[in-house]
Amino acid sequence: MNGPQQAGFPAAQPHAGGYANNGGGIGASHSGGHGPGGESAVERTLGSLRSLNPIDPAALPAPAEPQSLTIDDLYRSHRMGMVRLAILLVDDIASAEDVVQEAFAGLYKQWGSLRDTAAAIGYLRTAVVNGSRSMLRRRRTARAYTPPDPGTARSAESLAIMSAEHRAVVEAMGELAPRQREVLVLRYYGGLSESEIAEATGLSKGTVKSTASRAVAKLGDIMKQSLS
Q1: Where is the RNA polymerase sigma factor 70 region 4 type domain (predicted)?
Q2: pLDDT tens digits, one per residue of 60-117
Q3: What is the 3-state secondary structure (H, E, C) of the chain?
């Protein structure tokens, strides 16, 4: 799997609160509170979301043939990471678990056509993004839908381990356009490169980069307004 340092994204580096981008990252010119490397306070906080992901892409083993694994193996090792990814996209754990369950069901059907473990994980990631999009579309068209209460929308597990700063930026992400939110979640939580995000979302690499820049800028504005 390609690391997040490739294709225009700076590498995530450890720091006191988790991870931060090294150097002038995407959107750095738009948000306030720039650090020594040119990154914004929003980017530093977003970068630390990587520490919440139980799956470290950099620590994944070398690709293996799917036949040497089982669906159960991937379910045990990647389910929680995929559920947390879905929570950041759809806001509540029940919907996130439904999305991930459907993704694994689809993976089972495609198992014989996947070339290696990396392809299987990529399939899951794309299925979670697409499933989350479908979930949000159904919500918008369901007349009786009541949005989750902001105080309880995300699971206790997903928020309890976050600092107040993390919770603020995650809640602010809920005000972004869906594509902007997807790109930031995949970049900062998932640690993906532009190419990997493009593959998961169906966007071009150029669109991924411009969407990320606009999203970071907008997120900074939202957080400033919440503090004013």
Answers
A1: 167-219
A2: 555 556 557 788 888 988 998 899 899 889 888 889 999 999 999 999 999 888 888 8
A3: CCCCCCCCCCCEEEECCEEEECCCCCCCCCCCCCCCCCCCHHHHHHHHHHHHCCCCHHHCCCCCCHHHCCHHHHHHHHHHHHHHHHHHHHCCHHHHHHHHHHHHHHHHHHHHHCCCHHHHHHHHHHHHHHHHHHHHHHHHHCCCCCCCCCCCCCCHHHHHCCCHHHHHHHHHHCCCCHHHHHHHHHHHHCCCCHHHHHHHHCCCHHHHHHHHHHHHHHHHHHHHHHHC
* pLDDT tens-digit series, residues 37-69: 446 778 887 887 777 776 655 445 555 565 577
Q: Which two tokens stand for residue 86?
A: 């879905």
Phi/psi of residue 216, nearest 5 degrees: -65, -40
For tokens 């678990």, name the residue: 97
Cα 179 off chain centre by: 11
Decide if 132 contacts 86 (C-beta within 8 A): yes
